[in-house]
Amino acid sequence: MRPQKGFGTLLPGESADVTVRWTPRYTGTQEDVVCCRTLLVNHTYPIPFVGKCFKSPLSFNQNLLLLPATAWHNTTTASVEVTNASKLPQTFEFAAPPGSHLTVSPLVTTLPPGGVQRVQVSVQHATAPHSPPPTFLHPARTKGVHLVLN
User: Fold this and answer.
1) Distance between CA atoms of 56 and 6, rounded to whole angstroms?
2) Minimal CA–CA distance to 119: which of 129, 111, 128?
3) 92 sits in which H/E element
4) Cα(13)–Cα(20) distance, integer angstroms
5) What is the reported pLDDT for 127?
6) Among 17, 56, 64, 123, which residue is least crowded by beta carbons within 10 Å?
7) Hey, what domains does the chain have and what are their CATH numbers?
8) Is 39 exposed, middle or buried (0-12, 13-18, 19+ CB in 10 A)?
9) How much is the pLDDT for 4?
10) Residue 37 to residues 11, 27, 95, 148, Cα–Cα distance (Å)
11) Residue 65 CB partners (closer than 8 Å, separation 6+)
12) pLDDT at residue 117, as a whole number
C-alpha cells in the first residue's frame, strides 16, 4: 500500500487516498477487503473495494534481481528475461534512476508475439574525479543493490 508502505497516521476528521496493489486471482472485476487496524485500541475495520484486474502482456522470469556489493571501478551484472505473452507486438522501456550507477541494456525493445528478450542490468561504482577511492570497505557495511520488477 502507498503512501508510507501501508502505515500512516490519521487524526479525527482526516482522510487519505491510498493505492492498493494486490495479486488478483483472475482477470476481470474483483471485490476484496483491506483491513485497516488501529494501533491504540487494537480495532480492525474492514474496507471493501472493487478492482479491475488484467493480465499484463509482458512478464518477467523473476521479479527480484540481487546485485552484490561491487568494488570501485568494477562492474556487476545480472539479467532478467521479458516475455511477450500477447498476440500483438509489445514495446517496453527501462529507465535507471539518475545517480544509481545502473545501466540497462537494451533500454527499449519491441517484442513480437511470443518473443523473449534478455535484459542485462549492471552496476558500476565510479569515484568522483576529486575524491580518491576508499582503501578499505568493511564487509558488514557494504550492501548490494536490490531491484524489484513489477
Assistant:
1) 24
2) 111
3) strand 90-93
4) 22
5) 58
6) 17
7) 20-55 (no CATH), 58-128+137-148 (2.60.40.10)
8) exposed
9) 55
10) 14, 28, 36, 27
11) 78, 80, 121, 145, 146, 147, 149
12) 96
For the chain (length 150 residues), average pLDDT per consecutive 10? 59 77 77 78 82 84 84 87 94 86 91 96 70 44 46
Closest CA relative to residue 64, chosen from 147, 131, 7: 147
Extract the C-alpha cell encoding 104.
Answer: 540497462
> Residue-wise over 48-77: b if at least 16 C-beta within 10 A, else e?
eeeeeeeeebeeeeeeebebeebeeeeebe
Give the burial class of 139: count Cβ atoms within 10 A of its Cβ; 0-12 exposed, 13-18 middle, 19 or more buried.
exposed
Residue corresponding to grid cell 488478483: 24
pTM, rounded to two decimals: 0.57
pLDDT at 129: 46
Please report the pLDDT score of residue 7 as a whole number. Answer: 65
- Report which DSSP code applies to 90: E
